[in-house]
Design brief:
alpha+beta, YaeB-like fold, single chain, 4 strands, 4-stranded mixed sheet, 111 residues, 3 helices
Length: 111
Amino acid sequence: MPGYTLSFLPEVREQIREALRRTRDEYGLEKAREYSQLIRLALRDMAENPHLRQPRPEIHPDARLMHIRRPGQNAAHLFLYRIRGTVVEVARFRYDAMDLEQQVPSEWTRQ
C-alpha cells in the first residue's frame, strides 16, 4: 500500500511549536525532545496508515484523531485529521482535554 502525503493547515505547525515550547518551559529540554519524538512517530504512523484510527463522526463526519502517546510514554496531545484520497489533511494539534467539536476548522464546514 502506498504511503499518504501529509498536508497541514497553516496553524498546525505553530500549535506544535507552542506545545514544544510549553513542554520545554515546564518540564525541561529532555522532555521537550521526547515529546518531539512522539509527535514525529504519530505523524509517521498517520502517513503510513491513516486508517489505523476510526472515524469520529461526533466531531465531524470525516474526523479522525491520532494521539501521540505510546505505551510507557504518556502524552496529552493529539492530531485532528481527515483523509482526502491519498492526502491526510492535518487540521489541529491540540491538548486532548479540549472540546474537539470546537476545533473543527472552518475549511471542513464549507465543503
